[in-house]
Amino acid sequence: MPRTALRICPLCEATCGLTLTIDRGRVTGARGDRDDVFSKGFICPKGAAFGDLDADPDRLRAPLVRVDGELREATWDEAFDAVAAGIRPVVERYGPHAVGLVLGNPNVHTVAGALYPPLLIAGLGTRSLFTASTVDQMPKHVSSGLLFGDANAIPVPDLDRTDHLLLIGANPLESNGSLCTAPDFPGRLKALRARGGTLTVVDPRRTRTARLADRHIAVRPGTDALLLAAMAHTLFAEDLVTPADLAPHLDGLDRLPAALADFTPEAVADACDVDAATVRTLARELAAAPTAAVYARIGSCTVPHGTLAGWLVDVLNVLTGNLDRPGGALFPQAATDRTPRPAGPGRGFALGRWHSRVRRHPEAKGELPLAALAEEIDTATDEGEPIRALVAVAANPVLSAPDGDRLDKALASLDFMVSVDPYLNETSRHAHVVLPPPPPAQSPHHDFAFNTLAVRNQVRYTRPAVPLEPGRMAETEILARLVLAVTGMHGADPAVVDAMVVDRTLAQAVTEPHSPVHGRDPKELAALLTGVNGPERRLDMMLRLGPYGDGFGADPDGLTLDRLLAHPHGIDLGPLRPRLPQPLKTRSGKVELLPEPIAADLPRLRAALAERPAGLVLVGRRHLRSNNSWMHNVPALTGGSNRCTLHLHPEDAERLGVRDGQTVRIKGAGGEVTAPAEVTDAVRPGVVSLPHGWGHDRPGTRTRHASADPGANVNQLLDGSLLDPLSGNAVLNAVPVEVAPLSAAVTKTCRALT
């Protein structure tokens, strides 16, 4: 008989609650959970297609091990034997930094991806860490680290209470939100306008979000930081700076006017292609609103001045008194955060503690730029050993990093590679061992990362909706065994990994004066933990030690895993609340408004005042039915608007002699690709747009649907040389390209091939 089961959707940052229909161990339907405390029944096409993705026949069902050059199915024991035999000799001969670790975006969508990669990093002791952050949001981490002392202290807009929202480089009607976890983001924006609020969107494309807005500013790509700087300048020039209750928590406010003196509205107008009067209006409206929030996303991050743009977003929220204020931008408080420490000076945030070997890129947040991965493998220097072995967890950098062709060749040269991935894709096809996690219905779910970015404090946990199929291994066990295999403990019981974390965490917690368990016996505390396995015991521990926890009995009404399991639709913990100065970990204990690395980068922004693109510039775009390169193998999520086409303005199409639907060649510094042209006035003149995550045309993959309509890899247009210097983030937007039509005969051939 069919039954239902609850599941939190892991397919984007919105984290919506789902009600799954299960029949004979298979998900046959998915709808929104109307009783979910956070999403209240909202669902998008990705969530509705949960069953199709879960049952994708191209998902690997057993490990693969390379034998005589070919990947063959193997047992789990054989696979982990091969991992230990491949990684340990590299560490012992060349040192830990010769082993690279690449973490992809899906890690933050799983329980296993939150709990075990930190142990992999620590166990290996490698500095060769690369993640999807440096092709996405690293500038925001760096600006938050410099301002607040904590790279993960990212304020989010209080969507449900704000009167004025300024969105920059964000398209949440397609992305469902990012660095701002908000189920039904579209509904929240409509509610903002319905209650008389104002929505302004700054974007070179007239996106679905821009069409909803009161005002759309079609800024020139890559100039967001200039626009924001001019708005801040206006606030000072017109005596509109009102930090209000924030004033005691600020350091450097008096130095900002001089730092921003050159960025007048008139000075930035030509560079941004936004007239000075409009810049002043944006600043005045922000200052005049009863409450307001500035929110910027990937379009402002993946540009040459991404960190400065992220910094200026929070500067504007500070100058208008809207940081840490209801209706402004606040710091969420997740249930699994450690017990909040008392307010006061912290260690601060440092950049460049080590550097990459080849181009000497500084680390940021412990990571090196993903754009540098290929050269760190294929280039010898006197600075140490190149990367000779690689562990990739839920990562497909051949498609997500610049110059995939070079990385493709570099991966083929590795001594050893292990990939944790459900698919044989463009990256995992190079692995010597592939460890496939089970489908999401067979895994538990709790949003460790996204609850730290949620627009409302809440907590939810769902156990697997479907038991593990015979021959499958839980992703938590896969990663625990991987930790053991690469750290010289191969063959030990994987439960020892979780037990060590519990023992270490509790031993530290009892020494902290602010902890609810200060002075208690850690063994006694460990005996109180509940859960059916190690990961659940760790979750129970984190909940109990967290800001809403029971403190192992100190607060009988506090959170525990048992209490959470008794509330299958989640527990609402209330709206976001002001928290300053507690979240601050800067050396001063204050918001440091003009940190030295920011001040040192401002001359580069001043130089941009005189820069103008000589031709077309490229920007990316997102689709509602896609998330990076994950979902192009699911027929229900491709086609329609989710196609790999090049958007270009009618004026540019006429000038270039391009017809709608005609195949065009796009050329950049890293190479060239072809794609069908889609002529549309949704992009401003001088701008072309190609979506991210496509290019499924390499041999040796096993993604039949994606390969049948591969699209073009936009990142192949980039050579990896353009980075935001503070964060190491790849510049993926506002890059120059050339576009030319192909002949009718070539266009016909291209269509036949695809």
Explain what this protein looks like in three dimensions:
Helices cover 31% and strands 15% of the residues. By secondary structure, the protein is of the alpha/beta class. It has 5 domains: 3-54, Phosphorylase Kinase, domain 1; 58-126 and 364-445 and 461-492, Rossmann fold (3-Layer(aba) Sandwich); 138-336 and 594-604, Dimethylsulfoxide Reductase, domain 2 (3-Layer(aba) Sandwich), CATH 3.40.228.10; 493-569, no CATH class; 614-753, Barwin-like endoglucanases. A hairpin with a 2-residue loop joins β2 (17-23) and β3 (26-32). The longest helix has 19 residues, at 76-94. The relative contact order is 0.16. The model is unreliable at 747-754 (pLDDT under 50). One of its GO terms (cellular component) is membrane. GO terms for molecular function: 4 iron, 4 sulfur cluster binding; metal ion binding; molybdopterin cofactor binding; oxidoreductase activity. Keywords: 4Fe-4S, Iron, Iron-sulfur, Metal-binding, Oxidoreductase.
Primary descriptors:
754 residues, alpha/beta, Phosphorylase Kinase, domain 1, Rossmann fold, Dimethylsulfoxide Reductase, domain 2, 5 domains, six-stranded mixed beta barrel, 27 helices, 31% helix, disordered C terminus
